[in-house]
Amino acid sequence: DGWRASELRQRALVWIDEAVTRSERRGIHVLTERHTDRALELLGDELSPLAWRLKLARASALGHLRRLDAAQSLVAAVAAEASEHAHGPSQARAVLVEGDLAAKAGQHEEAARLLDEAVRLHHQIGDPAGVANARRLRALAELQSGRPDDAVVSLAESRAEFIELGDRRGEAWVLQGLAWLEYSEGQALIAEETLNESVTLFEELGDNGGLTWARGLLAWIKFHLGERDEAAELGSVVLADAADRGDRWGEGMMLALQ
User: Fold this and answer.
1) Global pTM value
2) Which of 126, 155, 220, 247 has its Cβ near the most Cβ atoms within 10 Å?
């Protein structure tokens, strides 16, 4: 009957939402896309925080899969709907995802601007984890737009916030970003030390997605330091994992190393 069908639908949505959270944490973008596709089919035209959260998870996954036009269209739709219904968390998250997509499109100044707005919006709704993550992403945009000093400040603030929250995964991602900055500034040995801290944290957490990113950067650092065989071996492992997770950017970076 209708009640039974509604109950089954709600249970399915809970299960799929949990699966989306797991695939996002593990960085398996092809799975996130698949799970959100099923969930959004069940939700239909529903306008709700759950629908917006799943759409933004899908947009983020599409961004990693380098389907940027589709991702940006989805974010724009969520931003408009969340704004119309004055749902602060969805508005803040939409701006953060929009900024990350701008960075992936090579629009680093625009990305930094959007992520600065994401910091403000997450602070406004009292979401310290969102603030820390927005600062971390903003740092990468600042680095890519030629503002390394600003990036150092953003990373330091983000790391302090993650430590205060007890978020070791967030801290590991900040360390990976800091290593990227150090490497880009020609400090390969220091970057290697920082990255080893990040790798250790990701290993302790069992975060294979984060571990792949950290090891991918480590492969490039070892290549730069003249450790070519070790770099190639590490790059091959990372390449296979990136392909399995649908990480197009990671695949490209490792192919360039071969």
Assistant:
1) 0.88
2) 247
Number of residues assigned to the chain? 258
Residues in contact with 240: Cβ distance below 8 Å, sequence separation at least 6, in sequence order: none
* Matching residue, tokens 């992520």: 115
Average pLDDT over residues 135-161: 96
C-alpha atoms less than 13 angstroms from C-alpha of 161 in its C-beta half-sphere: 21
Q: What pLDDT band is residue 253 in, cutting at 50, 70 and 90?
A: low
Judged by DSSP in three states, 2 sits in: helix
**Other beta carbons less than 10 A from residue 100's beta carbon:** 26
- Using DSSP's 3-state secondary structure scheme, residue 165 falls into helix
Of 53, 48, 65, 45, nearest in space to 16 by CA = 53
- Helical H runs in 65-127? 68-84, 88-104, 108-124
Distance CA 77, CA 215 (A): 35
Q: What is the signed CA dihedral for 104, 106, 107, 109, rounded to 10 degrees? A: 100
At 246, list the tokens: 């649908």
The answer to whether the beta carbons of residues 224 and 195 sit under 8 Å apart is no
Q: How far apart are CA 116 and CA 121, in angstroms?
A: 9
